[in-house]
Automatic annotation (TrEMBL):
Name of this protein: Electron transfer flavoprotein subunit beta
GO CC list: mitochondrial matrix
The family this protein is said to belong to: Belongs to the ETF beta-subunit/FixA family.
Residue ranges constituting the Electron transfer flavoprotein alpha/beta-subunit N-terminal domain according to the UniProt record: 23-213
Entries under CDD domains matching the protein: ETF_beta
Organism of origin: Quercus lobata (Valley oak)
Length: 251
């Protein structure tokens, strides 16, 4: 079985986000970029499944500008067998990404598609559900545990819900989106980083996949959240209770 994994290039989680002066978006020039943390978890899970003998190949996929190749190199260094880059300029919204994944799935024929539940740049949490709907595949979202049955071609997924845990049993092929507690991603070793630099990354364009990139969304303005007021020190519990009653709702 082949596993396809989505890996997105995002602003590193440790970087302080700055809004552009013209308020058209956030600043990405000269800013450290890295693989989306939830995508790292998705890739780690795919690699563990392969190491357990349940898959034969792991294919990492990234969509966006040419710099996405760096993210794919990281995926290859972690252990992915191949990488695919869909070279697209401009913003990519979840439905467009889902359509591109559907086209790639039809070309590659994977038995399992694993994505992070969301990306930390937009927090949309939509792509996995949309691509499952387009493909007509069962989906297990917010996975905190994944168990595959190779003989029965089934996937059992424990997923986190408001009331606790829900267990789903799905026929393969399927779409799984990963939650934070599924695993701890590995670090890429230096020898694997060097080997990844020489690996060929297959490229497609949306036009080659017969997908038109468009969106019904328009970003009007990006602004920073209002700054919080400075805290105050109270001298007694009674004063604290009074402030909580009378001032806690004031922004």
């Amino acid at each position: 079985m082949k596993i396809m994994v989505a890996v997105k290039r995002v602003i590193d989680y440790a970087v302080k986000i700055r809004v552009k002066p013209d308020k058209t978006g956030v600043e990405t020039q000269n800013v450290k970029m890295s693989m989306n943390p939830f995508c790292e978890i998705a890739l780690e899970e795919a690699l563990r499944i392969k190491e357990g003998g349940m898959a034969s190949e792991v294919v990492a996929v990234s969509m966006g500008p040419a710099q996405c190749v760096d993210t794919l190199r990281t995926g290859l260094a972690m252990g992915a067998d191949r990488a695919i880059h869909v070279d697209a300029t401009g913003p990519l919204y979840p439905l467009s990404v889902a359509k591109l994944f559907k086209a790639l799935v039809e070309l590659e024929k994977p038995g399992l598609l694993i994505l992070g539940k969301q990306a930390i740049d937009d927090d949309c949490n939509q792509t996995g559900q949309m691509v499952a709907g387009l493909l007509g595949w069962p989906q297990g979202t917010f996975a905190s545990k994944v168990v595959l049955d190779k003989e029965k071609q089934l996937a059992t997924v424990d997923r986190e819900v408001d009331g606790g845990l829900e267990t789903l049993c799905m026929d393969l092929p399927a779409v799984i989106t990963t939650d934070l507690r599924l695993n701890q991603p590995r670090y890429a070793t230096l020898p694997n980083i060097m080997k990844a630099k020489s690996k060929v990354i297959k490229k497609y364009t949306p036009q080659e996949l017969n997908i038109e990139i468009k969106s019904d969304l328009e970003v009007l303005q990006v602004t920073e959240p209002p700054k919080r007021k400075a805290g105050v020190i109270v001298s007694s519990v009674d004063e604290l209770i009074d402030k909580l009653k009378n001032e806690a709702h004031v922004i």
